[in-house]
Design goal:
This protein has 219 residues and is α/β, with parallel strands linked by helices. The protein contains seven helices and nine strands. 34% of the residues lie in helices and 25% in strands. Bound molecules: adenosine-5'-triphosphate and magnesium ion (MG). Magnesium ion (MG) binds next to α1.
């Protein structure tokens, strides 16, 4: 994980998309309180990627779930600051949800589960775009471009998820996440269920947006 002290931080000309100071997460369990995350600092700017690396159980998933607001009730999240594009949500669970909405998208571990098996992949991506008010013609052009960007032949837009391999479904899930227009893509072990070759292709698909969509990922 990348850590920087304030003195090391380069002069800032763009706003930080994520700025987290001293993040702590603990869980109340029957055997007492478990401290899962102890004092994480991180900063993500437009166009940057961060990878979290650490041994099993070191708190990578919990850190990301805290940012996504997806931790269960028995979790206590504390921080000196959790800012999304400058808005501090550390003390405000409700506000957190609002800010998260258009900002963060998650690419999870289960590509098949992220896709609706009964709807063609093109239509699924179209719907995400149409929901944002995009006109239908532009939506289908954008869907074509997104599929191409993650390495799926856009001529297969009318195929169902079951007609693609696991790695292809994972790339389609990335296209779906990118279609939300989210400025930050959080990936929780998006390649761990894939073989090494397919995994690196998926990682490249996610990295295509390096210039435009910052990512906060961990494998
Ligand atoms: N819902 C929960 N309730 C109680 N403890 C939890 C919960 N979720 C995670 N933990 C604990 O928090 C710690 C960090 O877990 P986390 O899932 O973040 O690890 P990780 O770094 O993602 O590991 P891995 O590489 O195995 O995925 C672990 O000790 C785990 O048992
Ligand atoms: Mg994990």
């Amino acid at each position: 994980m990348r850590h920087r002290t304030p003195a090391e931080r380069p002069k800032q000309d763009t706003e930080d998309l994520i700025d987290v100071r001293n993040l702590r997460v603990s869980f109340a369990t029957r055997r007492g309180r478990i401290h899962a995350v102890n004092g994480v600092d991180l900063t993500l700017r437009e166009g940057e990627s961060i990878g979290l690396v650490g041994e099993s159980g070191s708190g990578k998933s919990v850190t990301c779930r805290a940012l996504l607001g997806l931790l269960p009730e028995h979790a206590t999240v504390e921080a000196d600051a959790i800012r999304f594009s400058g808005t501090d949500v550390a003390a405000d669970r409700e506000g957190h949800a609002g800010v998260r909405g258009g900002t963060l998208a998650l690419v999870g571990q289960d590509p098949i589960g992220a896709l609706n098996p009964h709807v063609t992949v093109g239509t699924q991506i179209d719907r995400v775009l149409l929901n944002q008010g995009m006109p239908p013609t532009r939506a289908s052009e954008r869907t074509r471009a997104l599929l191409e960007e993650v390495g799926i032949d856009p001529r297969r837009r009318d195929a169902y998820p079951g007609e693609f391999s696991g790695g292809m479904c994972q790339r389609i899930a990335i296209a779906l996440a990118l279609a939300t227009g989210a400025r930050i893509l959080i990936a929780d072990e998006p390649t761990s269920s894939l073989d090494a070759d397919t995994g690196s292709r998926v990682a490249r698909a996610a990295a295509i947006h390096g210039g435009t969509v910052p990512r906060f990922g961990y494998t």
